[in-house]
Amino acid sequence: MDKLDRVMTLYRELNNRRYPVSRKQLEQKLECKGVTVKRAIGTLRDYFGVPVIYLRDQNGYVIDRAAGEHEIPGLWLNPEEIHALLVADSLLSNLEPGLVRAETGPFRQRLRNLMARIGGGEQHFDRIRLLSMGRRREQSRWFPRIAQAVLQRQRLRIGYHARSDDSASQREVSPQRLTHYRDNWYLDAWCHQREDLRTFSLDCIETAETLDRPALDMDNETLDRHYATAYGIFAGEPDKVAVLHFTAHRARWVANEIWHPQQTGYQLADGCYELRLPYRRHEELLGDILKYGADVEVMEPPSLREAVRRELERMTKKHEKSSHRISD
Question: Which of 10, 84, 180, 277 is the Cys-Cys partner for 260 at CB 3.0 to 4.6 Å?
């Protein structure tokens, strides 16, 4: 029985008894010695504020009912569970610094105090870190409002600046899901202007107003079919399958990677690795292919192979020009 379980058992034992309980009885119930019983009583009294008193004439401990009702929290956690919650809080805070830090601050401090009380010592949770690659500097200040609209199923009117064509627009949307993808947040929503599902990058949302109208609800199957079947952040049902061959050296890593939930892959006779995955638009997939350089070859479809070839050709020309400028 760990320390927190012991305190919980002690509270239940005293709270359910109408008469004082002797130290001997508590030692048997808590499976410990008298000094440990006294320590558990001290924790129950000092940390949880339960007025435990000792009645010398009856040789037992009791909760002082005259001091009023003293109900301790109904959520009981052992040290391992507290550790897990603090680690989860650290990871969540690292997803977007400042996003939930203030809201979870009091709860986090109570967990740390509880760990200290039960002998957990100083915990170095800053030793857990997430390295962000590609997180945009400005995440939306409207995140809390947008998240609330998603959960409460309310419509939003948003001012959106599209980077693709540098245009600004006002949209009325029915939020469906918040998505955290490659260190950035996105809103999946039904756009009432376009009458279709759209994905909005939160850092491009310049204004957000909650409307007094219920959001249009869409079932999970429809949302998954639209958002989760093609490759990457681009939505829509896939209409092509990419076939990639990785060198035997690179296969040591790629064979254990998940690029897409519906991917298939297997080792080839020469030690290379074949990866097949569905996609609709090639822009994001193209970038992921190029980062492997000569360790990957696109086998199918021809359109994707040609897109890689053209991009490599443009890169080569650009770097040849750059080298001339540097040499000059």
Answer: 277
Domain residues for the domain of 119 are 79-127
- Residue 13 near residue 62, CB atoms below 8 Å: no
Taking the mean position of all CA atoms in its chain, how far away is CA 270? 39
Instruction: Show Cβ contacts of residue 290 under 8 Å, excluding neighbours closer than 6 positions.
Output: 308, 311, 312
Describe the chain by its helix, strand, coil percentages, rounded to 5: 45, 25, 30
Q: Is residue 235 part of a domain?
A: no
Statement to judge: residues 109 and 150 lie in one domain: no
pLDDT digits (tens, 9 = 90+) for 19-58: 899 999 999 988 889 899 999 999 888 877 888 999 999 9
CB proximity list for 14: less than 8 A, separation 6 or greater = 21, 50, 52, 61, 62, 63
Structural domain includes residue 72: no
Does any domain span residue 135? no
Which residue type, as a one-letter code, is found at position 111? L
Which CATH number fits the domain that encloses residue 191? 2.30.30
Q: Is residue 107 part of a domain?
A: yes
Q: Which of 306, 303, 294, 300 has the alpha carbon at shortest distance from 275?
A: 300
pTM of the model: 0.65
Total domain count, the chain: 4
